[in-house]
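Lab notebook page, bench 4
Experiment: in silico fold of construct C2
Operator: M.H.
Input chain length: 66 residues
Purpose: comparison with the prior construct
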Amino acid sequence: MDVVVVFGIFIIFGIGLFVLNIVTSIWAYRDSIANGNSKEFALLVLLGTLFFPVVGLIVYLIIRKT
């Protein structure tokens, strides 16, 4: 394979992961607001899932009220 093709695949994969991180962070924020949590808590959830995508989402799913 050509180096440019491999580089392009990595770039597309990276952009996809970035978009997935943004979408899951927004979902967690909106879900936190919908569950009746304060806006401050929802903002902490948003920041936690943005900066620590996998761990932040797992922690939020564990501590959220159902």
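Observations: DSSP finds three helices and no strands in the chain. The first helix runs from residue 3 to 34.
Next step: discuss at group meeting.
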